[in-house]
Each structure stands twice: as C-alpha cells, then as structure tokens.
Amino acid sequence: MRYVLNIEPKPQSRPRFGNGRAYEKRDMTAWKQRAGYLLKSQRPDIIEKGAIAFLVTFYIRPPKSVSSVKKMAQPLKNEAIYVEKRPDLDNYLKAIWDCSNGLLFKDDGQIAVTSAQKLYSLNPRIEIEIFEL
C-alpha cells in the first residue's frame, strides 16, 4: 500500500521530564495526531501480524540557502537534492512509526525491512510504502 501525507515532516522530539514523569512537547503530540488523522482518512488496511517492509521518503522544505541558488532551481523542482543536515533521519522515522502504530501495522516490532530518505521539496510531505514480507 502507498500513502501520501500532506504534512511537513517533523522529527521526534526528545522527551521532557517534570513532576516525576516523562512527557512529550505539545507540538509533537499535535503533529502525531494530525499525521494519524491523515493516515486514517486514507482508510488503511492494518497489517495485523507478520514481518513488514516500511519504505518512506520525507520531503522537507529547503532553507533559503538552497532555494535561492539559481543552479539549484531545477534539481529542487525535480526533488533531486538529498538533505544532508540535521535533524537525523532516525528521528523522522521514529515520529512516523509512532503515529503509524495501530493504523498501518499492529506493532512497530513487525518492521523487518526499512528504507528511508530525506529530500528537499517545495511541496513538503511524507510518502510511505508498506507491504507484507
């Protein structure tokens, strides 16, 4: 199955601690709820058991230092420029796995194969492909 989430990719934030417990920042929680809603609206078929492959591309809005350079215009339009800066790819993955848990698969422990990439785009979004192995 293939899913497109028209939402700006967001990396998983570090947990915060207070009042004797760990918690997540409000904007991270809101982002996960929004991403989950976008997934639900596509009526996904949950993969209840078995190993799965999870392939994802994060299309990230470029900084001015990239988008304002003339020689970068065509590669940017073609979404052919890889992001080599922070945030780390694994933080983006963790955020999308968390909000996919229980919607695309029963548990993220099922993920046996993964492929992920970060590309600059003027149309920020997340594209996911998931299938049983």
Structure in words:
The protein has 133 residues and is of the alpha+beta class. The protein is built from 4 helices and 6 strands. It has helices at 26-40, 64-67, 73-77, 89-100; strands at residues 2-5, 16-18, 21-23, 52-60, 111-120, 125-132. Strands 1-6-4-5 form a 4-stranded mixed β-sheet, covered by helices on one side. A two-stranded antiparallel ribbon has the order 2-3. Strand 2 and strand 3 form a beta hairpin. The longest helix is centred in the N-terminal third of the chain and has 15 residues, at 26-40. It is globular and about 45 Å long. The two termini are 13 Å apart.
Short description:
By secondary structure, the chain is α+β, with helices and mostly antiparallel strands.
List segments where confidence is low: pLDDT < 50 over at least 5 consecutive residues: none
Number of strands: 6
Percentage of residues in strands:
25-35%
Strand order of the largest sheet: 1-6-4-5
Please write the string of helix (H) and strand (E) elements: EEEHEHHHEE
Q: What would the principal axes of the Cα set say about the shape?
A: globular
Helix fraction by DSSP (H/I, runs of at least 4): 25-40%
Largest sheet: 4 strands, mixed
How are the SSEs placed, and which strands pair?
Elements lengths: L1 E4 L10 E3 L2 E3 L2 H15 L11 E9 L3 H4 L5 H5 L11 H12 L10 E10 L4 E8 L1
Parallel strand pairs: 4-5
Antiparallel strand pairs: 1-6, 2-3, 4-6
